[in-house]
Amino acid sequence: MSHAVSRFAMNAVARLRDEREEESTKPFLARGSRAPRCHTCRVIESHCLCSWRPQVESRAGVCLIMTRKEVFKPSNTGWLIADVVRDNFAFIWSRTDVDPELIKLLSDPQWQPYLVFPGEYVAPERVTHTVEATGEKRPLFILLDATWTEARKIFRKSPYFDGFPILSLLPEKLSRYRLRRSTRSEHLCTAEVAALCLDLAGDVDAASALDAYFDVFSQHYLDAKHQLELNVSTPAHTELLPFVEHTAPVMP
User: Where in the numbering of this chain does the DTW domain appear (predicted)?
Assistant: First the structure.
């Protein structure tokens, strides 16, 4: 299988990772980072995911607010979202050094930002469970791609988010995320959250493609981790296949 897909433009999360690598004086070694990985999809090379990247349209955009460590983690799912949603943006969070491009994006009149965060931690008048899917402004989902402790800190110490509605999701199913340990099975990973947001915005195909892409990524990642042979004949691959450009991805 090809380990790079040149026809795809690099997404915002990948650009952010590469910028951080250039700035770092020493490499960040996440768990599992010593294994040879595809630079594009971050999966161990024998189980590369690049040929399974979906091609789908969406009206909504996504803005990922990431910590400095999160952008390097192979198990991070933010880059899956940026692969699927064409209008994707990513920024490293800093309390004191706010990226002016982030402020510019948040004030762009084409977007209606929604900060995705649990409603029980927010004043009720700011909370919504729905998304305005029509109208002149397009939804821009702001996703705090960090641990729960970090996300709460970002939420509290980012006054430039104060004027935006809080989109509080009501998921009907438990998280399928198995790549990191969590004490709360109801905590969704970032890709699962984004798929729910896209569905609320009426981007049904993009939501379905991201859901399937996430499941395929999880299988490739875990099979590689446990040294299992790659299996592309799973229900998740079958579900993703209609969204993959050309008739079928290249098989190993």
Answer: 34-226
Give pTM, 2 decimals.
0.86
Q: Which residues contact 52 (CB under 8 A, 6 or more apart)?
A: 213, 216, 237, 240, 244, 249
Q: Mean pLDDT of successive 10-residue segments in the chain (252 residues)?
A: 44 89 60 72 92 95 94 89 96 94 97 94 93 90 93 96 93 56 58 94 96 94 91 94 70 48
Distance CA(190)–CA(233), nearest Å, equals 26
- Structure tokens, 26: 């020493």
Q: How big is the chain, counted in residues?
A: 252
Domain spans, the chain: 12-243
Amino acid residing at 76:
N
Look up residue 47 and give its amino acid: H
User: What is each CA distance from 211 to 56, 95, 123, 162, 165, in whole angstroms?
Assistant: 13, 32, 30, 30, 25
Longest pairwise C-alpha distance within the chain: 52
SS3 content of the chain, % helix, strand, coil (to 5): 40, 15, 50
CA atoms within 13 A on the CB side of 237: 14
